[in-house]
Structure formats: C-alpha cells, structure tokens
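Quiz preparation item.
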C-alpha cells in the first residue's frame, strides 16, 4: 500500500477511462497515457491490490476512493517521518541547554580539568617517612588548588598550568625552580616550556641559572619574543628587560640536592674503579620534573613543564622538558602532554607529540596513545611517565617506574593525589 500511495501522491496520475471500464483495461489505458510514468512492476502491484479489494473489478468511484485513501496514508506517513527528523535535530540541543543559563550554549565546553606531576622515578613506600610523604602531598595539593581556582572561575588553561607549575617550582621537594638538582659543575641549570593548544604557539627556555620561575619566562618567550626557544644568558637578558624575577644561584641551594650530587659523583668514581664502595642511586637522586596539563571552560588545552634536569649533568645539557613535542605538547584537536623521565629517551621518542599523533592519525583514545608511547620509550631503554588530558577532560597518567608524584581534579571536583604504583 505504501508504494502505491506514494506513487499516487508523487505522480498524481489519473485513470482516463469510462466508469464501467475494468481495472485491467484502465491500467493499460493509463500506461498508454503515461509512457514514461508507472513501471510495469508498480502497475502490477496496484492491480493486485485493487483486485484483492474489488474481486469483481473496481468502478471509477472505487478507483477515486482508493486513490484518496492512499493519498491520506501517504500524508500521514510523510508527516510522521518529518516529525521524527525534526526531533532528532533538536533533541541534543535541548539536552545541552537543560538547566543552564542562556549565555552558555554548549555543555561540552563547560567541563574543565587539571592534571599535574612532580616527577617519576624510584619512589618506594618503605623508604618514605610519613612526614615527607605529607609534605609531597601538600605540595601537590597546593598546586592543584591554585590551578583549579583559575579554571573554576573561567580562567584559561595557560594561566592554570603556569600558576600550578610556579607553585611546584617554589617547593624545594620538586626538581624545578627552588629544588633544582645540581650539574657536575655544582651549578643549577633549568629548562621549561609552555604550549597553547588553541593556537599551537609555544615558548621554551633552557639552561637558565638565575630565573626563579622558569615557566613564566617560557610564557614570556611565547608571547613577547617572536621566538619559540631561548637559552642561557640571552634568555636571562630578555627576562631582565621584561621585569621577570632573577635570583642569585644561592637561592637554588638545597642540602638534599647537594648530597645527591655527591652521591652520584661518588658512584661514578666507584664504577671507574677508584673506590670499591657500592652506591645505591635512585631516580630520586638523579632527576625529576614538574608539569601540568589542563582543559579550560572554553575547551582550550595547555601544557606546562619545568625541570632542573638530571643530577650531575654536564653544564649545557638540555633535556626533553623544553623540547616541544618531546616533553611538552598541546593541541586542541587531540591532547595536552607533559612528560617526566630520562630526557634523552623522551627526546628520541618524541613522546608528547607522538601521543597527539596517535590520536590524530590512528584515532586512538588518550589512554591507549599515552600507554603505547610510554611502551616505546621502555623499548628504547628509558623510564619515566607522562600526564595527558584531552578536550573532553579524559586523563591519562601512565608511568613505568615504581612511582610518580601526581594529582588531578576528578569530574566531581574531588582532588586526587597519588605517589606509588
Ligand atoms: N625529563 C627530565 C630531564 O631529562 C628529568 C625528569 O623528568 O626526571 O631533564
């Protein structure tokens, strides 16, 4: 009935025959009158339907009633279809605006999220005192709170990650800013980078010796220098010109980092045979980094990373943290990433960009991409971890060491801080 009805509606054909004419004759007459019209199959179908309703053959009146009824059904069917399509189009929009002020049209971009790390390495519960653990946790919580407040009031992910990283740079427990490790020359040299996922602009600094908060200089490079990366004295002169805080190298002295340097030097000596003593050097003694990734209420992603590098590194050595695409990367269409671990391996594996590329080109989820890139680092012989977030607020925090200082704000606004595996 449906096809006959639609045919009637669409073609609007008339049967030109006398009232007494049988349907067989009528159909032949119609076919002759409309040579390019009804196909023989459709005609046979109409004929079959009419014959089953009017076994004795339909009159002209029967034909007209039959046509009117079919047209009525066609209109009903057509209207129902149109209504279903209209509902499908307006449905999600209604769900999105439910319970929201009119000036916030898209719930998707209402979400925000923040993840941070304070370095990955050999972090064993048995070697950690409760007091020390409390201090690490408090530091991570302070940084989370600082970034979270910015995001909550509608601030940008760039501001939130920079501010969170500054808190960790000021905390001597973490290897960045104040707590930076020492080079083999007994100096402190710091690297940092920041990237805006919306515009793909980035700023990076390396081998800084007097900048209290390297992440803020990285941002200044991004916004004011016309360059992506600056290092050493040139970067510090640029900082001075723009009123960024410079400090004496003494500011970066901490007893713990100094002892770590002595330990690593002694261990190296013993390896070369000068002394027979065995030294147990953990990743804690060797390196560490801080980083933050976030998505803000506008759906913009950002990543910030800052580090003192590795203990006993040669002066001038630069790790992965300030290398865009290795230790730091952000792209609104995929994710924001900040890495920590053996920098040389992370550079060779182009870790941060690889996570993004696997999502973009292979369609992997954030978690799959993050884990498979870390597996690649492990295959090369490197250890460490990374934090990542996508624009929907999904997060990933994989690491292949015994611990990683890390924290995030879950979708309900709950703060989660973890250290061990
Ligand atoms: N990736 C840093 C570097 O190699 C160190 C670390 O994160 O532990 O400079």
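Solution:
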């Amino acid at each position: 009935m449906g096809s006959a009805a639609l045919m009637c509606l669409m073609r609007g054909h008339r049967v030109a025959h006398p009232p007494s004419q049988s349907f067989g004759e009528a159909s032949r007459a119609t076919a002759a009158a409309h040579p390019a019209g009804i196909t023989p199959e459709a005609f046979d179908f109409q004929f079959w339907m009419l014959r089953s309703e009017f076994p004795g053959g339909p009159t002209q009146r029967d034909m007209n009633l039959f046509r009117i009824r079919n047209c009525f059904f066609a209109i009903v069917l057509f209207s129902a279809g149109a209504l279903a399509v209209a509902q499908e189009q307006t449905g999600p929009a209604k769900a999105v605006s439910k319970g929201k002020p009119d000036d916030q049209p898209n719930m998707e971009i209402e979400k925000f999220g923040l993840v941070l790390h304070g370095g990955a390495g050999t972090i064993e519960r048995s070697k950690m005192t409760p007091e020390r653990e409390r201090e690490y946790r408090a530091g991570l919580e302070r940084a989370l709170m600082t970034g979270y407040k910015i995001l909550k009031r509608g601030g940008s992910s760039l501001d939130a990650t920079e501010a969170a990283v500054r808190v960790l740079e000021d905390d001597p427990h973490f290897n960045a800013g104040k707590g930076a490790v020492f080079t083999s020359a007994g100096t402190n040299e710091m690297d940092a980078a920041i990237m805006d996922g919306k515009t793909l602009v980035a700023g990076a600094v390396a081998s800084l010796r007097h900048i209290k908060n390297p992440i803020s200089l990285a941002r200044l490079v991004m916004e004011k220098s016309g360059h992506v990366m600056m290092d050493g004295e040139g970067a510090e002169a640029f900082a001075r010109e723009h009123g960024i805080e410079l400090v004496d190298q003494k500011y970066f002295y901490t007893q713990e980092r100094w002892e770590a340097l002595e330990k690593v030097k002694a261990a190296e000596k013993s390896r070369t045979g000068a002394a027979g003593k065995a030294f147990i050097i953990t990743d804690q003694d060797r390196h560490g980094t801080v980083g933050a990734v976030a998505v803000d209420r506008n759906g913009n992603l950002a990543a910030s990373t800052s580090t003192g590098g590795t203990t006993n590194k040669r002066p001038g050595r630069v790790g992965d943290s300030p290398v865009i695409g290795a230790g730091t990367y952000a792209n609104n269409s995929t994710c924001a990433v900040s890495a920590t671990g053996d920098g040389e391996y992370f550079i060779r594996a182009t870790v941060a960009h690889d996570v993004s590329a696997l999502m973009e080109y292979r369609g992997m989820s954030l978690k799959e991409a993050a884990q498979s890139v870390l597996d690649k680092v492990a295959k090369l012989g490197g250890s460490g971890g990374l934090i990542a977030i996508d624009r929907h607020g999904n997060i990933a925090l994989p690491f292949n060491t015994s611990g990683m200082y890390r924290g995030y704000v879950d979708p309900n606004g709950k703060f989660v801080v973890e250290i061990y595996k």
